[in-house]
Amino acid sequence: MSDPRPLRVPGTAPRPVDWPAEEPASRIDAAGATDRGHHRAKNEDAFAVIQLADREGVLLVVADGLGGAHGGEVASRMAVDVVVGELTRRPLPADRTLRLALRRAVEAAGQALDETARQQPELAAFGTTLTAALVTWPEAWIAHVGDSRAYLWRGGRLEQLTRDHTMAERLREEGLVAPRQRVPSWESVLWNALGPSGEETQLEERHERLEPGDRLLLCSDGLTRHLADDELARRLAQRTASQELAEELVAAANLAGGEDNITAVVARAPAAR
Ligand code: CA
User: What is the DSSP letter of 236?
Assistant: First the structure.
């Protein structure tokens, strides 16, 4: 008999949780990979892939830390751990209130960062992006802050489910620059992140009803700066297991330059029910 505890992969911190003994009917194949890349001294990305214990589903989280010294890696790790802790500490509520549960978990992560920054002045400038997907088959709730991304691959088509909360994207959205025009000095400047930045964090939320064969990709900008959407779609179309696919995506971004920390989390819905 297989182990009913959640699948843990490198990048997730161990955490004591009381898990129900029964096992979900089947599992969504989900996994992640992360790498420092070739140019950064350390990896400030963090992620978690958690198989839900009390129903068929997964919790996916990607965070990309910001802030000097050790701030970035502290912020991303803390945000991921708080979101995972909030959503796994007790049985999940009914499906119709999962959106609220996910929102509260992200808010709790923001509060944890805020409190930590107040206690440790050297972390005053820290913060993180956070992109989370709570999947209870076939429903998927997304919560998002920053410029990491969630994608849905369906039948060969790739859709970006989240907006990039960068100043450059805002200029494009508001029509101040052309839709495809790059604004190099603003491409990596965030107007919205999780952390004690003073400004209110705006949580972007989305719901999707998944279909058999769908794939979700959550990733940090270190992946998408090197791999364009058509390349992501081509790779997601492969029949590769999620662990191998996540590692392949990270390796491809490294091969293309690895200029930033790289994180990819992939979940594949079963092909047929
Ligand atoms: Ca990054």
Answer: H
- What pLDDT was estimated at residue 128? 96
Averages of pLDDT over each 10 residues, the chain, 273 residues: 38 42 63 96 96 90 87 94 95 88 96 92 91 95 98 97 96 94 92 81 96 96 97 95 97 97 95 62
CA dist., res. 208 & res. 176, Å (int): 30
Q: How far is the CA of 43 from the centre of ligand 1 (A)?
A: 9
Say if 9 falls within a structural domain.
no
**Cis peptide bond upstream of 270, omega within 30:** no
Query: Is 21 inside a domain boundary?
Result: no
Find the 45 Cα to ligand 1 centroid distance in Å: 7
Distance 224 CA to ligand 1 centre (A): 10
Query: What CATH number is given to the structural domain containing 233?
Result: 3.60.40.10
211 CA from centroid of ligand 1 (Å): 30
pLDDT at 18: 39
Ligand 1 centroid, distance to 188 Cα (angstroms): 8
Tell me how far the alpha carbon of residue 261 lies from the centroid of ligand 1, in angstroms.
6
CA-to-CA separations, 174 to 167, 169, 178, 203, in angstroms, rounded = 10, 9, 9, 19
